[in-house]
Structures are given as C-alpha cells and as structure tokens.
Amino acid sequence: MDRWESGDQATQPSPADLDYETWLDEQIQNSGYASVVHEPLARRYWQTNIDRVYIDALTAEWLAPETLAIEMTSLSSQPAENTAAPRLLLTSASDNMALDVTLESLVDSSVNSKIQGHFNNIDYQTIKAQLNNSIANKVNDGIVNIAVSGDFSHKDTGELNLLLAAQLSNASLTIKGELIDVERFDIPVLVQGAFANPSIRVDKSAVESQVKDLAKDVVKSKVESKLKDKVQDKLKGLFKR
Known about the structure:
With about 240 residues, the protein is an alpha+beta fold. The protein has helices at about 20-30, 40-45, 125, 135, 205-240, and strands at about 50-60, 70-75, 85-90, 95-100, 115-125, 140-150, 160-175, 180-195, 195-200.
C-alpha cells in the first residue's frame, strides 16, 4: 500500500471515501501492475452474508395504530452460492398483518419463490374508494380480511401466480334494491402472468354465485312477507265477524 499511497494528502482520498477504490485502481495501473480476479473464487468466497436482521417497533401514519416487526434471514450478496433461501417475515403486534416471503428462486432458478400472509380487520370504509363503483356502491359497511398465497419468479419474464382471497364479514349489501345483512361474502382475486406485467382478475363465477344465493333469499323474504300480510288480513277479517 505504501508503494501506491503517496504523501500528497491534498489529492489522496481516505480509505473510507466512496471513490477510494477507483483511485487505488488507477494508481496500480499507472505503476504497471495488474489487478486479477478469479471469478469462481470471487463468487464463492468474496461475498457478504448476513444470518439475521430484526427490526421492531416500526410505525407508519397510514398503518396507525399498528406496530410492525421485520425479520430478514439468510441474506447474501451471492444467494445462488448458498443453500438457504433469503426470507422476509413481516408481522404486527396485533397479528392483523403478517407476510412471509421465501425467495427460493434466488437460490435455484428452476423453482419459484413462495409468499403467504394475511391482512385482517380492515374497515371497509378505508378501502371503498379503491374499488370499482359497481361493487363499492353495493356494500355499505363491514370488515375485510385478505389472505395472500402463491408463488412467483422475480425475473421480468418469470411467472406470477397469486391468490388474494378477500372476505367481507358483518356487512350490509344492496341486492335487488333491498338492503340485507351478510355474515360472509368471499371475493377471490387472481394475480397471474409475467412478473413484470401481471393481470388481475376477479373470480366472477364465485362472486355471481353468492349474489344469486343472496338474491334468492331476498325474493324468498319478500314472498314470506306478502304471505304474512295476507294471513294477518284474513285473521283481522275473521275477528271482525
């Protein structure tokens, strides 16, 4: 190092400076020496590995009052040289939020990475503005739970296959002009296609099937109500006699 590091402190960067490596390479080349790196050895031994990173007590205004924790394991600058896949785990103190992502495709390109998690107890009013008007206007209130599961490849040409299973509970829906209470209504959403440009599709058959069942209940309720009114009229007439 003494050969290339001069006593001219005015122009010589310190080892902590970002441009120090570039400067040192220039000094080596100007001195007639060469820098040789054997790539297989560099990939195998010259890498940065981090076994575990844990961060807790994270807060965000849009997530209030949730407190989050993030855990990352098996991180590496050369993940393909390791046997353990990098993993990201996000949890909340209330357990309303959890996300588990295992990046297996970084270790083995022949397999996909896995993701699963949930986002629970979301007030419907907080997400209503993000929904299509045809759906948003039929739901008046309720609690939304979303389960996430599937796999993906992080490459641009890789595939993406996720299921977002949204469940609406304790809600009021407008069906055929009638406001009815619904204990549970499921909305499956499929996210599929290329990772760089996926398509998002609602499972309309599952939604329409539930709507039809609710419509039948509305019709049945109306018929029962009319029959009840007729019976009451008959009874009133009978007592008048």
